[in-house]
Design brief:
91 residues; 60s Ribosomal Protein L30, Chain: A; Ribosomal_eL8/eL30/eS12/Gad45; Ribosomal_eL30-like_sf; Ribosomal protein eL8/eL30/eS12/Gadd45 domain-containing protein
């Protein structure tokens, strides 16, 4: 949904640039990404950005149709919807 609407950026470099420009409200990092990658993004991300790390790179890649370990969501409304869905799934 976010990809079709143009609110999804993917790939480490692209997501990093978008974070620096303060255009990201959620980052999804694969739980099997390297520890260095996870630390780099955690150091870069401010409190206003939600981090989700409960999906594998395979699950992320299947969801968007591209091989990726890092996704960024730029729309706060979609971020809110994803948070609500994740709460329902983890109950």
């Amino acid at each position: 949904m976010a990809k079709r609407a143009g609110f999804l950026v993917s790939g480490q470099t692209v997501v990093e640039r978008a974070i620096r420009k303060q255009k990201i409200s959620m980052v999804i990092i694969a739980n099997d990404a390297s520890e260095n990658t996870k630390k780099d993004f955690e150091d870069l991300i401010r409190e206003r950005i939600t981090i989700v790390n409960q999906f594998s790179s395979t699950e992320i890649s299947q969801a968007i149709g591209q091989t990726r370990k890092i996704l960024g969501i730029s729309d706060p409304g979609i971020t809110k919807q994803i948070k609500e869905l994740l709460k329902e799934v983890t109950l």
